[in-house]
Structure formats: structure tokens, C-alpha cells
Amino acid sequence: DVKVTQSSRYLVKRTGEKVFLECVQDMDHENMFWYRQDPGLGLRLIYFSYDVKMKEKGDIPEGYSVSREKKERFSLILESASTNQTSMYLCASSAFDRMNTEAFFGQGTRLTVV
Amino acid sequence: AQTVTQSQPEMSVQEAETVTLSCTYDTSESDYYLFWYKQPPSRQMILVIRQEAYKQQNATENRFSVNFQKAAKSFSLKISDSQLGDAAMYFCAYRPYTGNQFYFGTGTSLTVIP
After folding, report:
1. At residue B1, does pLDDT exceed 70?
2. Nearest CA in chain A to B50
3. Residues B36, B22: contact at Cβ < 8 Å?
């Protein structure tokens, strides 16, 4: 089974803290994604990466950065957490081929910034 | 830009009945992939069904089937013989044939009434 694992299910951080959300996949997928999920807004793409050390901005990159030093790991960084970053964060991965087209998701991290 | 629209924020269905969730999308591409994902209260997003745009035959997975209308850019999900375990958020998603990104709708919350 494909596994995408996020380091925490629940996280509470203080305003101004630097926050790291980690994601690891075990299927040698080229693509990895970070989404933010808010009620009524669906999934909004923050960043994605199609290769090691490569990254592309999504729809809402402001206030976030990412790191992909190894193929299996994609980290989301909140440089200085703010209360409006309280949300559900979903990591996903996918292959880059015509036979395996879907995204696989982690279990999500519920981040609360106080 | 590709957009995916789910116009039904909430739906309900009686157990054992059939329900149809709607999805429309906007694209200028001729080849692409469409997906329905399910997110139960446990939060793990899982793939329900996938459709390749070049295939005219509608995809089916057990009690789940789609009605893919390419000219109308419509991709609805039909759930037959609804079960309590079908209660979840359902997201429609689009992926271009040659792209890496996924585009998600805002989701439909399905309630199954015993």
C-alpha cells in the first residue's frame, strides 16, 4: 500500500513560532504537494514539488515555504505562525506516469495557532 | 485556468437509496483525468473512482459510478445502495494529461440517514 505519512495529527503553536510540518511518502513518487483545507474553500494548493530541490508556488504560498532535500520527504514551513494559518494541512504525493495518475494523501495535520 | 465546481455543499440520502453528486469543470484541454475522492470524518482522503477523458465508457467501482459528459464538462458521482459508511466529504478533482497539478472542487458533505 502507498503510504503518505504526516508527522503530526494535531499541533498547537504560538503566534510567531517557526513551524515545521513533515511529510514522507514510500512509493518513490516524483510529485509532492501541500494543501490547506478550510470549510467551504476545499483544498487550496500551497506549494508542490516535482523533483528533489524543485518547488513551485501554488495558489496561496504567502507565509509558507517548503523544502525537499530528499525525494521521499517534503516539508512545509511556517516562518512565523499567525492565527490565520490555523487550518487543516494535507500532504499528497503522485507519480508522473500515465498508469498511476491519482494523488495519495496523508492523514492531515490540524494546526492551531494561538 | 482549470476550475472545478461542486455546486452542492451538502447532500443527504436515506440508507439504501441512491444519490448523485454533481461536478463541473472548466478546461481547454482535450485529454485529462477526473477523480472523486472521499474524506470520512477520520480525515484520510481516499480515491473513490477515476475517469480518463479519452475513455467514453463511464467508470464503475462497485456501488460507485460516474456520469461523464465530456462536451458538457460534467462529471457526476452516483452512489447506489447508500450505506452509513458512505457519509463523508466528497471532492471532485481534475488533473491535466501532461501536468502534475490537481485541481479540487470545494467538496460536498454527504449525510446518510438511517
Report:
1. no
2. A102
3. no
